[in-house]
Amino acid sequence: MLTLFFSELADLDAKGVPNVHKRIHVSSRCHLNLTLHAAADGLSEKALGKSQIGTTKRGIGPSYSTKASRDGLRVGDIYYDDFAEKLRTLAGSYRARYGDLLEYDVEEEIQKFVNIKEKLRPYIIDAVEYMKVAQEQKRSILVEGSQALMLDLDYGSYPFVTSSNCSVGGCIQGLTISPFNIKNIIGVVKAYTTRVGGGPFPTEQHDDVGTKLQDIGGEIGVSTGRRRRCGWLDLVVLKHSNAVNYYTTLNLTKLDVLDTFPTIRVAVAYITPEGERITSFPADLNYLDKCTPEYIDFEGWQSSTQGLRLWSDLPLQAQKYIELIESEIGVKVAYIGTGKDREDMIIR
Questions:
Q1: pLDDT tens for residues 64-97?
Q2: Distance between CA atoms of 234 and 269, rounded to whole angstroms?
Q3: Distance, CA of 214 to CA of 219 (rounded, Å)
Q4: C-alpha span between 206 and 270 (Å, rounded)
Q5: Cβ proximity of 338 and 319 under 8 Å
Q6: Which residues are annotated as a binding site for GTP?
Q7: What does the DSSP assignment read for 18-30?
Q8: DSSP string, 50-90
């Protein structure tokens, strides 16, 4: 998978991003996501049949599995003489499990690392020391997560999750950031809810509403190209995310996607099979499947918010929508996305 790393670097070069190669670093402790892992990932997902998780089949799950079982190979291992033998041993364990179904050539992968390791060497650093120095020097550190809390291995909708921690705790662990140095935690949430792959989705809309959200919002998965499942904003999920991450502010994105809806719904609670009203996210997905959302309905503003940059310019109904979110979650919506451009943002 290192070829993808260099491919992305080339893309950044082509787009004129300055000093790319001096600013990108790879931790020597970083685990290698191998072609072997991707080959096994596809077989594991296929074996699940109708219970498929919806993995991207990029090998992420198997890569984390070998990390947990202490069989994984790390970036620093590439430069040791026993790397090839370790990889052969790992491949042998997968071959024993999948037999001839595993379409993988271990010698070909070994040769790829031989060919690429010197090209990779300048990027490798001791990330622990790097982050230690940065914090001692009180440098500004911005961390951007690529996945939502509901995909978190521990606090997400398990087992329909990724293989790592997408929480603030994951940032602290993954980057060795001191929790005492964290000043702001911005929770980013769409004005409606989306999901790629399998898993529970209480507010999912299987009708024209869901299709309209997909089309206007351009909801296509970046990694897979699959259309994202879409539904109304679920504040039970957002409350759960906030209970794990303790956001200082929220960034509400894609408000303009809702501009043409005559009615907009927001889920504020779930009704259990026993008729109980709950506002926390159940750990038992079978039980969650039997719950129904309790909605508050809003009259849509049905006017364009695209490109607006002042709170006072928002339609009154849009302001009420945002104020409900703030009231239910107890966190200020400090940033409101009103379009595709970086500048299409209301900052309060």
A1: 999 999 999 999 999 999 999 999 999 999 999 9
A2: 8
A3: 5
A4: 19
A5: no
A6: 228, 254-256, 337-339
A7: TTHHHH--EETTP
A8: GG-----SSSHHHHHHHHHTT---BGGGGGSTTHHHHHHHH
Tokens in use for 190?
């769409």
Cα(348)–Cα(250) distance, integer angstroms: 11
Residue 21 CB burial class (10 angstroms; 0-12, 13-18, ≥19): exposed
Q: Which phi and psi (to 5°) does residue 218 adopt?
A: 60, 45
The pTM score is 0.89
DSSP states of 198-254: SS--TTB--SHHHHHHHHHHT-B-TTT-PBPEEE-EEHHHHHHHHHHH--SEEEEE-
Between helix 35-47 and helix 60-68 the angle, nearest 10°, is 100
H/E element holding 130?
Answer: helix 127-136
Binding-site residue positions: 56, 70, 147, 162, 222-228, 254-256, 337-339
Convert the pLDDT of each residue in 253-296 to its tens digit.
Answer: 999 999 999 999 999 999 999 999 999 999 999 999 999 999 99
What pLDDT score does 2 carry?
A: 81
Q: Which two tokens stand for residue 118?
A: 């010197």
Spatial separation of the C-alpha atoms in residues 343 and 294, rounded to whole Å: 35
Report the distance separating Cα 88 and Cα 65, nearest Å.
Answer: 17
Instruction: Please give the positions annotated as active site.
Output: 67
- Which residues of the chain carry a pLDDT beneath 50? none
- 45 half-sphere exposure, CB direction, 13 A CA radius: 20
